[in-house]
Amino acid sequence: MRIVAATNRDLEAMVAAGTFRSDLYYRLNVFPIAVPALRERPEDIPPLVRYFAQKFARGMNKRVETIPADVMVALTGYAWPGNVRELENAIERAVILTSGRALRVPISELRGSAAAVSGDGTLAATERDAILHMLRATQWVVGGPYGAAARLGMKRTTLQSRMQKLGIRRSA
Q: In tens digits, what is the pLDDT along the chain, a chain of 172 residues?
């Protein structure tokens, strides 16, 4: 039998402080798996958003065909302190609130909002940061099923237009 246990606490520090049993720690720490928080891997957010949107839309007999770019930028820029569960709950709520074919996410309800990620707090700066991050994550592949546009939930031409508007160019 194997037991998989998870925590957000520093058990090693707790053992050192005497607040966690060392024998239990060493039994649990046979094969540690460190999973970074969602805020540390924002490139995972667009595929998760698409997956959860389709999952909940199927369950509610709705058709969610598009995720607006501004919504994806906001979701990518949010810190997600509740990690994937918080994202899943937010998308489930969004699907419930959606009446058309485009996913409606109450962006204003995201505590800390996307503006907190960017240095100057403007929507343009946040959008620029999210696009640059996704371009780097895809090695500057803009189009195709695994390109930055698809991962951001927008058309290739829309992403190219935004890149031009925001002055985003690949440096040599």
A: 888 888 878 899 999 999 999 999 999 888 888 888 898 898 999 999 999 999 999 999 999 999 988 888 889 888 898 899 999 999 999 999 998 899 988 877 775 544 444 445 566 777 788 888 888 888 999 999 888 888 887 889 988 988 988 889 887 5
Residues in the chain: 172
Please state, as a whole number, how many other Cβ atoms lie within 10 Å of the Cβ of residue 98: 19
pTM over 0.90: no
CA gap 104, 102 in Å, rounded: 6
Nearest to 67 by CA among 79, 83, 56: 56
Instruction: Give the containing element (helix H, strand E) for 68.
Output: none
* Domains of the chain, each with CATH number or no CATH: 1-34 (no CATH), 38-166 (1.10.8.60)
Q: Is 22 helix (H, G, I), strand (E, B) or coil?
A: helix
